[in-house]
Model the fold of this input.
Amino acid sequence: MRKTIQTLLLVIGGVIAAQAQTIIPKVGLSLATTTASEIEEGVENSIGAQPGLSIGVGYNKTIASFGKTIFSLQPELLFLQKGFSVESKGEYYEGEAIYEFRADQKFKLNYIEVPVLAKLEFGAGQVRFFTYVGPSFSVGLGGKMKGEFTFDDGYYSFSEDFESDIIFGDAPEDNEELNEDVYLDNRFEVGAQLGIGATILNKVSIDVRYGLGFTDLSNEGDSANRVLQFTLGVPIGLK
Done:
């Protein structure tokens, strides 16, 4: 009986780890795009990625350890830039004139994002590897759209640069001019993140993650965010 109790205590001691806590300031780059395949009906669109910034902090708390493997939870608070780029071609009518046009547009969206990650860390020595997955919750702050229109009627061509604010909310009825604001329906986004990484010398953390948005930017069609992040962090142990 005593031997059974001792064995059980050893198992419990191996599962319930010391509640190690770590703060991880981090900074990195994002490469974002959208699931949308068409921005405007009747126009030839080519959708690409848009680079951005990721900066914030994570809080990691050990839940259990199994030998050299550690299971922990890691909520984070991030400022994250998402967005996409669009190249469009089509025809523009002004009176009786018909112009061939090309538009190059870059949409940059600013978010506050809170991922809640389940993290599994393994390995020994100076390099430890980890993988994680979990939900994320985001609030859109706004953004900018910059672009250039090029018009050509067969005789001459001209270009026009433009810039608009991106606002989360319903657009007013009179918002139809080229340089007016861009409105997106959904400020709040629910998604998920998964990734891998490594901690080197317990001083530097490097990770790559992929974020999937489940909420469309616009209620009119498929337009969810997709974000690839490359992040560098500095783990700071708490006593």
About this structure: The chain is about 5% helix and 70% strand. Confidence is low (pLDDT under 50) at residues 4-17.
